[in-house]
Specification:
single chain, mainly alpha, 2 domains, 14 helices, 72% helix, 0% strand
Length: 312
Amino acid sequence: MLGRHGNNLFWMARYLERSENTARRIQAVLNHALSREDGGREEWAAILVNGGFKTTFDKKFENNSPTNVINFLLRDRDNLNSVMSLMSAARQNGRSVRTCLTREVWLSLNESWIACETVLKRPVNIHDLPTILDGIKKGSSLFRGALYGTMLHNDIFNFLCLGTYIERVDNTIRTIDEKYHRLLPTAKVIGGNEDQGQWEVMLRSLAAWRSFNWLKKGRLDPSGVADFLIFDERMPRSINFCYRQLKSNLDNLSNIYGRVYESSKIASEIVDGLNNNRSKNIHKINLKDFIGDHIAKNHELSLKVAIDFNLN
């Protein structure tokens, strides 16, 4: 496959995953804000700071009101990571490799873009926000269903999966980084509304609230949450799950092209390291160093993928 086609597939998947992650984060904060007297202003501001949007946002808006933040994250063309910008970029990449995609995959992508352009062409009314966010998530799910249900599981499929899981694990790591102090062994779950709300924001933004409660029967504890988000092999957005998928897809590409790639070695080392760390007591892991280390490793892996497969 030509490097530029692999690049289009890789980034199309990354942009789609990023748009879904943004929608989930907004929805998690919205749920939290509805139960807060201050409207969750601290959490709305945190989205801007941790996403690296604060400088761009401050140039356009005088205050970080929920309405301003929501419209900036969903529809602002000056924000290259707004959902509208991401969907446009994903569709443009998809058009460049249209012949690599099945009809169902292309239609799911194109229809999601049309839906976003339609509902986001005017400023968002906060009362319509839940419906808009559900539509964004639904579009991503339809794309993923078409991908797994109609595409050959060949190199095209592998590049799409690489983009998805590199973006997904980056989001999980950075979400944990934002709130890692709540996962420290010294943290205590008091059980008040504030604590419950903070746990929900973190887990809901990773689509993990329901599954965590199924497994833990509603018992919230720092070590349990940390173990679940980092090591659980069943949770689709855990760090361990994502890297296992990355390793599998890179191994497939090595078999298809008959070469051993540096990126495949890096993914294998990361998976082995996670297995070794899981054998330790979660309390013995320096969470701050662990997070910083994996942010760097994921960045290195992404760069190696681009080098190995001439993505440009």
